[in-house]
Amino acid sequence: MKTYVYQIAVIVWKDTLLEMRTREVVISMIVFALLSVVTFNFAFDATPSMANMVASGILWVTLVFGAILGLTRVFALEVSSGGIDGTLLSPISRDAFFFGKVISTLIFMMFVEAILLPVMVVFFDLYFQLIPLILVSILALFGLALVGSLFSAMAINTKAREVMLPVLYLPVIVPVLLSAVECTEVILAGGGLADITKWLSMMLVFDATYMVAAPFCFSAIASE
Amino acid sequence: MSKFSGSVVKVKGLTKSYGRLRVLNSLDVEVSRGEVAVIYGSNGSGKTTLQSIISSLTTPDAGLAEVCGRDTSIRSQMARELVGFVAHTPFLYEALTVKENLLFFSRLYGLTEGPVDGEAFERLISPLGLDERIDQRIDTLSHGYRKRVSIARALLHKPAVLLLDEPESGLDIQTVEVFEGIISDFIRSGGAALVTTHSRASAYGEKVTYYNLEQGKLF
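Above: the input entities. Below: the structure tokens describing the complete assembly.
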């Protein structure tokens, strides 16, 4: 178990270092996210009551589409230099490698959300409890990173990977996306954890299901 | 290095097809400690596929591939500990430096005790002429130096067998000599090597067996 966690940490360390050098994943996500929020802000010209209703949708749609931009690069960086083959040659288990990629993606997504959220607070004049939103964000982004990393790996060897990834990804993440939007809407309206248990449970089930299924599918992909 | 006494590499009845094209057809080969098997053949004859299966990167359709008695399909994680692979592409991360790449791979192999600072590391990189370039990014290195780093990566964990896929392609004479010297030292110290090439000429020592790979079989 100690070795397994260590291997995951090594992958995360390498991905973070690679991202600091190339800035291919996070920068594209941040630019897209900020541009979207600014555009939505001018398009809606929201009143305080309307802002609470639309902000949750804007936040998650922006994050999901930004994530797609980043996800296309997550495995492309691995494949372009052949580094993925070097990693798969080592005695690391395929699922440790996969979870390493998921955690790296999760960190990148959380970084983008940490930049996006204060901008949205200013633009839409939002007030909310931070702890419930952090919990919702971790659960939702983990689910998005799990499925996104799997489909990013699947799409990487296809000719039209930029098209293939959203086509595969978007229908599958509907449950976690809806849950995240509903939870965030309740939190922005002043609700707490007690008001969103139903949606939190749905996200937990989604995450648990893909925590089992995704590494299994990834192992099959990696062996070919 | 493994103290296994039998054949380091044992391949029996190995078959692999891509679609309707049968690349390997019930292929058999064995390589023992201190031996080099040189497999030559034309482009697309299945040389790289054979090495990919032995290194667990590809699964065979039928047959057996073992490294020190460990099946590369069923016990792939244990088999991979014993294999070093130098392929056409260097299998390195271009945006990382030589040191960072070697540190990353040494950690994956569980070499936690000063893998890129100690004497053993110095003994690995010095003959390859990498001392001066240790802090250079891979994407700033020439093809020859990338290949040298690739050899260092393959030898980091003291493998039982080295798989070399056309190791001398695109290298100058000086780099080829360095390369052959390192491989010869590896063989003398009890390692085994399986080399694929287009030609039969090589200078890897005395215990070299040549095979011609044609229509998925060795002759």
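Note for the figure: Chain A has a mean pLDDT of 90.
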